[in-house]
Each structure stands twice: as structure tokens, then as C-alpha cells.
Amino acid sequence: MSRAVEEINRRMLRARDAMDRAYTQPLDIPHLAEVAHVSEAHFIRTFKSTFGETPHRYLQRRRVERSMFMLCETARSITDICLEVGFTSLGTFSRTFSEIVGVTPSEYRARAVIKPVPTCFTMAYMRPSSFGEARAKNGA
User: Fold this and answer.
1) ∠59-62-66 over CA atoms, to 5°?
2) What is the reported pTM?
3) Between the CA of residue 83 and those of 23, 45, 74, 80, 114, what are the distances in Å?
4) pLDDT digits (tens, 9 = 90+) for 20-61
5) Where are the domains of the chain?
6) Can you tell me the distance from the alpha carbon of 11 to that of 43, in angstroms, rounded to the nearest whole number?
7) What three-state secondary structure class fits 4?
8) Are 55 and 32 in contact (CB under 8 A)?
9) For residues 74-108, b (16+ Cβ closer than 10 Å) or e, as one string?
10) Which CATH architecture describes the domain 60-137?
């Protein structure tokens, strides 16, 4: 791998880390591009080629991952969880959750089984992947 590729990967990782820290906040492409030291258009293209999804989709998936944990581990309402993880609309949250996970938040909560393993293992196992989402869209 060339130095240029390593450097751009480092920049994209810095931006992704910033998104992970502030996933409850609105997505701000100009700020993230500034963190990565690239133009906005270049940031979006490079992020997608590096991580396989757009910054917006990554942020949505990150929010859904957090909501999955909260749905299993808390008794809070779905609306509260939706707002807590950074969605501003329950409809958008439910639609996005269903697209990524395959079931509605209510169905996910009803099916949730508390597993007697460390949370880090459970979260890694339960993490939705973009690969499965792409396969579902392509009918595979």
C-alpha cells in the first residue's frame, strides 16, 4: 500500500471516529471533510470507496446499532430511543431500522433474548452489516 493510500485511509478513519463520537448529532459533511482535510465531494466519494457506504448510511447504521442495544437492554419507549440515538422522526427511524435489521423496532424488541454472554460479544454478533443489506437488495 502506498503512502498516499495510507494517508487518505488515516484521514477517513479520523472522520469516521468523529462520527462515532457524535453519532447523536446531525451529520455535518463540511465539518467531517474538514476533519479529513479534503473537499466535501472528495470526502463523500473517498469515504464510500474506503468503507463501502456513504457517510450518511454509516451514521444511520451506527444509530441503528445503538438503538438495537437500547431496545434489548432498556424498557424505554421506541420514540425515546429514536430521539436518543439522533433520529428526528419516528417514521424515518422505523423505516431505516427495518431496512437495516429486517424487522421493525417493535418486532426486534419482542424477539430479543437476553444472552448470558458479555455485551461486547453480543454486540459484535448482532451488528448489522452493509454486505447483507446489499445482498437483500440484489435478491441474493
Assistant:
1) 140
2) 0.76
3) 12, 29, 14, 5, 24
4) 999 999 888 999 999 999 999 999 999 999 999 999 999 999
5) 3-52, 60-137
6) 9
7) helix
8) yes
9) eeeebeebbbebbbeeeeebbebbebbbeeebeeb
10) Orthogonal Bundle (1.10)
